[in-house]
Structure formats: C-alpha cells, structure tokens
Amino acid sequence: MLTVEKANLHYGAAQALRGISLNAEMGKITCVLGRNGVGKSSLLRAISGQHPLSSGSVVFNDVKLDGLAPYNRARQGIGYVPQGREIFPLLTVKENLESGYAPVKRSDRFIPNEIFSLFPVLQTMLGRRGGDLSGGQQQQLAIGRALVTRPKILVLDEPTEGIQPSIIKDIGRAIKYLRDSTGMAILLVEQYLDFCRELADHVYIMDRGEIVHEGAAETLDTPEARRHLTV
Ligand SMILES: Nc1ncnc2c1ncn2[C@@H]1O[C@H](COP(=O)(O)OP(=O)(O)OP(=O)(O)O)[C@@H](O)[C@H]1O
Fold first, then answer.
1. Atom 18, ligand 1: which residue's CA is nearest?
2. Is the ipTM here above 0.90?
3. Domains of the chain in sequence order
4. Of 53, 189, 210, 211, which one has the fewest beta carbons inside 10 Å?
5. What sign does the dihedral 93-49-153-36 (CA atoms) show?
6. What is the model's pLDDT at position 226?
7. Ligand 1 neighbourhood includes 38 CB (under 6 angstroms)
8. How far apart are CA 52 and CA 117, in angstroms?
9. ABC transporter domain: from which residue to which, for each copy (predicted)?
C-alpha cells in the first residue's frame, strides 16, 4: 500500500499541498479529483520524486521514499505517467518503450506482450516517431512505458486529458484489467468525473491543497462532494 502522510509541499513561498494524507491500496483504483490548480499534479510529483515535500512522508510497502531520487522510486515499484505524457517526440515508439528499461534488472529488459494486448496500436506503430502519434496514442505509449518498468503501483496524472472518447474507453479498460489481473495499485488524478465514477474503488477530492472529501465512488454524487467539483 502507498501511504501519504501529512504532506506539505511549497513552490518558493507558495504552498501547494497542505497536510495531505491518503492511501492507495494494492488491487484497488484510487482516484483523486479536483478542479484546476488545487494541487493534484503536485501530489503526484511528490510521490514520484519529481518535487520534494517540505514536510510529511510517502511510504510504499513499508519503504520510506522521502529523499529517494525518481529512478530509485521506480525501482521500488512506482510507475509514473506524467501529465502531458512527456513522450520523446523524435524517438520511435519502440525506443520510447525501451526508455523504461533503466530501473529494471537485465533479465527483465524486454517489452512485455501484455502491453501490446492492452494497446495493439503500439505494436503496429513500433517504428513510428513518438511525436507522430495522436494524443490518445501517446497516452497509451506513456502508460506502456510505465508498465515496462514492472510497477507495483501505477500513478497517472489526468490520463483522459485532451483524448477522444473511444481511446478514453480503451484506457479505462486497460486500467481495470491491470487492477484485476496483476493486483497492482492504481492512483490517478482526474478532472473527468464520469471516468472516476466508473473506475474508482475509492475517491478523494482536493481543494486548495487539502483533502476535503473521501469515500466510495458512489459518494461523488452527494451534494457535498459536488460542491467541491463544480466551477
Ligand atoms: N513549478 C511551479 N512553480 C510555482 N507554482 C506552481 C508550480 N507548479 C504548480 N504551481 C502552483 O501550485 C498550485 C497547484 O498546482 P498543480 O499543478 O499541482 O494543480 P493541479 O490540481 O494538478 O492543476 P491542473 O489540473 O491544472 O494540472 C497551483 O496554484 C499552481 O499554480
């Protein structure tokens, strides 16, 4: 299980996370919802090691991650799919996938077939440049690249952002498959309510750097939860 405890994070004098505590359990999909700018990406950057916490801690399967570099967190099993996907545009799809080899041991340095079963388009486009793919295909590639690192938890930053509905469905199916077949934990932040309602086992809502609601996916339909999500 991933546990974030009393996390505070600053950008200079500006505080983006204010005492955030949450859990993401193995074999469960945990969604963090919230409007623009409430600190969702900052939370994931803190978990993946892209930005340090000012105080508080991140613990994964009893290992304290604070102070570990991103590649060492990847070795601990944290697979991070960043907002905007961050595909290498001039590298091929195959090379982009292979860029996930860095944290894995030599014997695991191959692309698992499962990735092509989940996202067949990646197999047909292996020789194409990452920058030539559509936004939805790049999102699939970014998830594929994270899976190459053999994660125990997949951490996704707005996987539906700017993506057409048919590919959103494919991505939703893939996320459910990964939960059910591998028992990995999935933690995703989103603004797209229906996607979370459909997928989540547990939800949190953030507002201005704080957790303001926590519960089962059905609780998203309560007036109290809606109040934090409407613009
Ligand atoms: N590198 C940075 N330097 C300074 N302030 C930042 C930086 N990154 C984010 N912020 C600020 O921190 C706050 C939280 O931003 P964050 O990106 O975590 O929110 P978010 O909920 O992910 O928003 P979005 O949905 O727009 O991605 C915002 O006020 C934002 O302007």
1. 39
2. yes
3. 2-229 (3.40.50.300)
4. 210
5. negative
6. 87
7. yes
8. 36
9. 2-231
Question: Is 34's C-beta closer than 6 angstroms to any atom of ligand 1?
Answer: yes
Q: Which two tokens stand for residue 207?
A: 């507002």
Pick the closest to residue 90 from 139, 132, 142, 134 (CA basis). 132
Band of pLDDT at residue 156, cut at 50, 70 and 90: very high
Q: Which residue has the tokens 């692309």?
A: 111
Which atom from ligand 1 is nearest to the alpha carbon of 38? 21
Q: Which residue has the tokens 């070795």?
A: 75
Decide: residue 171, CB within 10 A, 0-12 exposed, 13-18 middle, 19+ buried.
Answer: buried
User: Mind listing the pLDDT tens digit for each residue in 186-207?
Assistant: 999 998 899 999 999 999 999 9
Can you tell me the distance from the alpha carbon of 193 to that of 200, in angstroms, rounded to the nearest whole number? 10
Specify whether the CB–CB gap between 104 and 135 falls below 8 A. no
Provide CB contacts within 8 A for 224, sequence distance 6+.
213
